[in-house]
Amino acid sequence: MTDRVPTGDASRGILQQLAKMDGEPTGTKTYGRYLWQAKQAVRNWLSCLAPSDTPLAVICERIEDIAIIYESGFRFAQLKTRDRGAWSGKTVCDKGHGIDSLIRTYKSARASHVHEHSAFELWLEGPMSDRSDTVKFFEDPLQASDEIKKKIITLGLPKSQIDDFLGRLIIRAQQPPQAHIDSVIIRQMAAIWRGHSFPELEDIYQRLLDAASAAQAGHDQIGSIQRLIKHPLSPSFDLGWLDGEPQALTRSMIQSLTPPLDGESDQQLFERMSRGESASMLELKLRRAGATEATIQQAHALRAQSDIVRQLSLASRSDQAEEFEQLAGRVLVHARALASRISLNGVANPLAAARPAEIITAEILSDPSVGQLDRHGLLDGDTVNLYGYLCHLSDKCLFPWRAA
What we know:
The chain is of the alpha/beta class. The protein is built from 18 helices and six strands. The radius of gyration is 29 Å and the shape is elongated.
């Protein structure tokens, strides 16, 4: 077969002919729409990290393109991309353009007696038409014209349910376009993890996008997902089983894939570890305080080095426990003072305030006078060993790498 492979001028000629052939863009466009939906899932999954009114989970490609689960109710979203032109009220009511799918979901939710706790949303890439009937319908679906209502009824919605359905319908045009949604999400992440570099945010984003794409392609679990909408909502309803569903993006899952938030307490870090987080308490605290991967690896190495010196020192004499306790006090006073100074200077230097672990590390390791804290030479008066000892104290929940 190799003697049939063209080379040289013949190869270039074939490539030129290939370039002139009409391509079939359907596959590319389908993949683009699929990826856009996964990115929209990530965008809403990030809201699980909000301090209040947070979703419990985002379900992909089951019941609707995206289903967002709250303690108090459900949001079912149908997503539509558009190549060109504006969306009109009549267009979205055509078969296959979104409203028909939401009607099916509404009827399913109604049969399960959860429609009163649900919103049915149509997310549209691109603008809406400026026609008055479209503007009224998009802003308040209950203001739909008689013609639009008639089209909705022909899609299978009983006439007696039209007002209830329209009262729960939300139309969101101007969703972030496929060309710009990445930058929208990165900006959203930059507001969550302040001070993280662009490459760090990109790495986090890729992990989340991989998880969302996998959830979209999850095996058919319709039986277990229907279990969700068949239960009346109540504080006692346990949604913990969602963590094992391949199409569910849960709060605990996103926490396992992302750095700790600045506002997370030590108790929340312990909860991360109890859920199987492989990182140590030291690493979680450093990440929460904005440490880079290089700083975290350095902290582990210097902590191990310091532990060896500390153990040898303790083995050499039996009366050093009290002296180490005094040393711990001096090291913590110094480190806490650094953290407080960084916090107080936050207005003038917000970047440093967002990454206190980086600044504390640089300050200690670049200052040989820190060795004077070791008055008894327990760690050889070595600044590097004292930094490693601080890491040891942090692992014992004595230093958070930021102002208390």
